[in-house]
Design a protein that fits this description.
It is built from nine helices and 16 strands. By secondary structure, it is of the alpha/beta class. Helix 3 (about 40-50) packs across helix 4 (about 65-90) and helix 7 (about 160-170) packs parallel to helix 9 (about 210-225).
Length: about 260
Amino acid sequence: MKDFIVIKIGGNTIEQLTAEFYQQLHLWLKEGKKILLVHGGGSTISKLSLQLKLPVRKINGIRISDKQTLDLTRMVLLGKTQTQLLQGLSAHSLPAIGLNAADDNLLVGDFLDKQTYGYVGKIKAVNKNLLEKLLTTHIGVIAPLALTPSKQWLNVNADTAAADIASQLNATALYLMTDVPGVLNNGKIVPKLSLETAHNLRNKKIITNGMQPKITAAFQAFQTGVEHVSITNKLTTTGTLIIQEGENENETYFSDI
């Protein structure tokens, strides 16, 4: 969609959103942009899992989800983090609507690898017509959950979900917001990141754990046509910008979307 912006917000990041974040959303709305926020909630899910004596296991940043973990994930995402984000938007006079996969087949998914990850999915289809209609007047706030055609709920990594949605909607921009200012190398922001450099940083164990699905999602979106993809902690700074091979990776970059 033209002028469509997808923003992924981690669970920890929701509690750290500043007035600057909400001001940028106001500005984009005035410019006629359509905005969809994809929210996580991983830290709360892990905390409650430990309290309930459920296993907390991840492979390359992807949470292994049995049925109990899936139920807990749905409860946290739809009952806590989504409402928390909606309250913040409302408090800053931003029109917003909470969404999930069950809304008119909004997000249709399939198992990622049931034997390895359990009830973890990937998004296969998005109800574009519904989003086009709703986002004309509201900021969408959606949980990273999908439903299979047989109506089985699936947990989807929030970074992956945001990238899948941005790709399928031909979004103009994807922001993967996190609690660090970008990809860090020896404490310094990597301003531009090509696929080759990302592989090198992985091999050197500089890109690890939770950053891995962000990097994978970022390149997936970029390679499928999303023009502006960045990993950042602020909408007003680019952080780490995803680029083509051969571009100057040492140059600081900022672009108005």
